[in-house]
Design brief:
Number of strands: 10
Number of helices: 12
Largest sheet: 8 strands, parallel
CATH superfamily of the largest domain: Divalent-metal-dependent TIM barrel enzymes
CATH class of the largest domain: Alpha Beta
Distance between the termini: 23 Å
Strand order of the largest sheet: 7-6-5-4-3-2-1-10
Number of domains: 2
Oligomer: single chain
Order of helices and strands: HHEHEHEHEHEHEHHEEHEHEH
CATH architecture of the largest domain: Alpha-Beta Barrel
Radius of gyration: 20 Å
Structural class: alpha/beta
Shape: globular
């Protein structure tokens, strides 16, 4: 089963209707060809099922709720990205009376039951890999994770593919070899691997293009983080072009935002330029997530929209739950949930 879909049905009031009504109200019909190309894409972006709105498990305690399930409900999220550590424990899913682990059949069943009882789905497992330092151990952990993904109906695993022990300019052959091993290991499963674009390597579209081409499997793709592309220094319009280039390879997302000074948005900035100063709540930044979603829909995306917040330090602690809830509400509206 693929993460892609071809359903072209519309649900509820479509963006086509909204845009058409707006155009008419504005003083007459305008040919669709005169709209910006991304708006044409957005008109069709409502096609298909609504996407699951998820949150990284690292944010859940910020809500102040008694357990992770209450936190997800308070936020309005139907999905969660779950960190898995070296012991196959899920340390950021919290509960006053239990700890979560997928290392044993009993632990898997306990998590499955709680997911079902609370009507939450895991949209991705998150692994913090160091492939070039401990390849065999990393592969063994992923091999152990694959049957768990099947039992819990998890379609994607977020991976780190970052050079630690190998020089960056020599890293591509190792990454290709590792990617081939991962895809071969998962051949008879429904698992897909989403390499997060982050740091100085996988935010480079040249590296990504070469990696995907040489591995040669549609099972290997992206955990797309548009904000990381912008953080890397790509001008804003180039961020959208990169997303369009890899949209058909996206299996999972991280959604956050930056608001740079207007004169900096379309410039090539240094990596991480003034990030701590300018990162901001998801609805308020430069990256237009309506446009991002239109590009993903064009690539037949069927993953999630997963909140990742790195700007809470800009707000009083008492406001942190409200910031997260506002961001989740934004994603729910975007996703048609």
């Amino acid at each position: 089963m693929s993460l892609k879909h071809s359903d072209t049905s519309f649900r509820g009031v479509s963006r086509r209707s909204f845009i058409t009504d707006t155009i008419i109200a504005g003083g007459g019909l305008i040919a669709a060809s005169l709209l910006p190309s991304y708006l044409n894409d957005a008109i069709g972006a409502e096609a298909g099922q609504s996407l699951t709105v998820a949150c990284r498990d690292a944010h859940l305690k910020t809500t102040g709720e008694t357990d992770c399930w209450a936190a997800l409900k308070a936020l309005g999220a139907d999905g969660v990205e779950v960190v898995v550590n070296d012991q196959l424990a899920c340390p950021l899913l919290y509960h006053p009376d239990k700890k979560y682990s997928i290392a044993t059949p009993a632990g898997i069943e306990a998590l499955r039951k709680d997911l079902s009882d609370h009507q939450i789905r895991i949209t991705a497992f998150c692994m913090n890999n160091r492939f070039d330092e401990r390849l065999e151990a990393e592969l063994a952990m992923i091999k152990a994770l694959l049957p768990v993904m099947d039992k819990l109906k998890v379609k994607a695993v977020r991976l780190d593919v970052v050079p630690h022990a190998i020089a960056k300019d020599q890293f591509l052959p190792f990454a290709v070899s590792t990617g081939k091993k991962l895809c071969a290991m998962a051949e008879d499963t429904d698992a897909h691997f989403g390499i997060e674009n982050h740091g100085s390597t996988t935010n480079d579209p040249v590296f990504l293009s070469a990696l995907f081409s040489e591995v040669g499997s549609q099972r290997l793709g992206l955990t797309l983080d548009p904000n990381n592309l912008y953080w890397y220094g790509h001008p804003l319009e180039k961020v959208y072009r990169i997303i369009e280039q890899f949209a058909s390879r996206c299996f999972h997302t991280h959604c956050k935002n930056i608001k740079y000074p207007a004169e900096k948005r379309e410039t090539q900035r240094s990596i991480g330029w003034e990030y701590e100063k300018y990162n901001i709540a998801l609805p308020d930044g430069d990256i237009d997530y309506h446009r991002v979603l239109a590009l993903l829909r064009k690539g037949n995306y069927q993953g999630d929209l997963c909140l990742e917040n790195e700007c809470l330090g800009h707000y009083p602690q008492a406001d942190h739950p409200a910031v997260l809830k506002r961001e989740t509400a934004f994603l729910r509206k975007l996703a048609g949930a």
